[in-house]
Design brief:
Blueprint: H1 8-11, H2 17-20, E1 27-28, H3 40-51, H4 63-76, E2 85-88, H5 91-102, E3 108-111, H6 119-125, E4 129-132, E5 136-138, E6 142-144, H7 147-155, E7 160-164, H8 176-188, E8 192-196, H9 217-222, E9 223-227, E10 241-244, H10 248-255, H11 259-263, H12 267-279, H13 281-305, E11 310-311, E12 319-323, H14 333-341, E13 343-344, E14 346-347, E15 358-362, H15 367-379
Parallel strand pairs: 1-13, 3-4, 3-7, 7-8, 8-9
Antiparallel strand pairs: 2-10, 5-6, 9-10, 11-12, 12-15, 14-15
């Protein structure tokens, strides 16, 4: 089986954000939606549900939880206990509700920019105050968590750490050693780590994803993980995600949440999620192969057409963090690129002030669209 992006003519019939935010003369390489057709097992499960008019409220069915557990075991050697999980609408809700369990109003919550833009909003939604501890960067080693900075923030009173693992927009897969250090710090200061792991199934073969809750007893006692099939199988509109815990302390906390947090899970989303984790692994492997090919292709295209751009191939996801500062296009090159090249990218500044001069580019598209986007941008010079 080969996963290939749908033709532009077909993609433009979609009504999701990616295909409705801009006119048809714009190539949309911004929001994290893939251009690939829905995995056949997922489509079949949804068609079957529609054919039997199975569109009501969610009921007492743990099949999706068991499917997640089986996928986690097969993919990462991580033994998830289904009874320690809880479903809800999406990863953002997992984050907000987990933080509400961990902090009091006004408590500080660590985030590590450049990072997924909603993190800046989800913390205050939960009642917290954002405490930025930017990632470290060196040309030799690349990006890494600032463990000393995280400890200083905990010592100064931060009560939680909102971790992005793998890290969006960089595709950074944190090492097990760094994650264990984070867990040890959380234990030392009796803080909570909420680990957003939605990009985990999109880890490339040249990296190893480590679930935060798997690294130590301290991680299990102080951590809650957020998982979903939404990014890896393109199911964001179907609204199903998981709280995952691995210790009685955190399991008791998520069980204390109002019942509405769980029953707002989409019934169709849960059906699709079960099918993705259980029967969609071959499709995911082929999608990752297509993404991986474009990951390398982007390196070649930039070297040929935009040699002053800097780009490190991500170890997870289909999102590229591209440094355009050398081109002199200002703090937000995406604005000029949209205006002159008709290519829509995410502004780097949305990910924190460290993103000035950067853009995020979604390369889960056809090779032809990727080449056209880069050549359009190159013609601006």
């Amino acid at each position: 089986m080969t996963v290939e992006a749908s033709p532009l003519s077909q993609l433009r019939t979609r009504t999701s954000e990616k295909w409705r935010a801009y006119p048809d003369d714009v190539l949309p390489l911004f929001v994290a939606e893939m251009d690939y057709p829905l995995a056949e097992p997922v489509a079949a499960a949804l068609h079957d549900a529609i054919s039997r008019s199975d569109t009501g409220y969610i009921g007492p069915d743990d099949a999706a939880k068991r499917a997640l557990a089986d996928f986690a075991s097969a993919s990462w050697g991580w033994e998830v206990e289904p009874e320690r999980t809880l479903t809800t609408t999406d990863v953002s809700v997992v984050i907000v509700e987990s933080l509400r369990l961990a902090i009091r109003p006004g408590d500080r919550v660590i985030i590590t920019p450049p990072v997924y833009p909603p993190f800046f909003e989800l913390v205050p939604e939960a009642g917290g105050v954002v405490d930025e501890v930017p990632l470290l960067f060196s040309d030799a080693a690349g990006w890494a968590l600032d463990l000393d900075g995280i400890e200083r923030a905990f010592a100064a009173g931060a009560r939680a750490f909102l971790l992005c693992n793998p890290h969006n927009p960089l595709g950074l897969v944190h090492s097990s050693e760094q994650l264990a250090e984070v867990a040890a710090l959380a234990a030392r200061y009796d803080a909570v780590v909420v680990s957003d792991e939605v990009h985990a199934p999109l880890t490339h073969p040249d990296a190893t994803f480590t679930p935060f809750l798997s690294v130590s007893a301290e991680a299990r006692r102080h951590g809650i993980a957020a998982h979903a099939a939404s990014k890896a199988w393109n199911l964001a509109g179907l609204k199903c995600a998981f709280f995952v815990t691995a210790d009685d302390r955190m399991t008791d906390r998520i069980r204390s949440l109002p019942i509405e947090v769980e029953v707002r899970t989409s019934h169709l989303g849960r059906i699709a999620t079960e099918a993705a984790y259980r029967d969609g692994r071959a499709w995911l492997a082929d999608a990752l192969a297509a993404i991986g090919s474009n990951r390398v292709r982007l390196t070649t295209l930039l070297a040929e057409h935009l040699p002053d751009a800097r780009y490190r191939e991500p170890h997870a996801s289909y999102l590229a963090w591209v440094d355009l500062r050398a081109l002199g296009w200002g703090d937000d090159p995406s604005a000029r690129i949209l205006d002159e090249a008709k290519v829509a990218l995410n502004p780097g500044t949305d990910f924190g002030r460290q993103g000035a001069g950067f853009v995020r580019l979604n390369f889960a598209c056809s090779p032809a669209v990727l080449e056209e986007a880069v050549t359009r941008i190159a013609r601006m010079r």
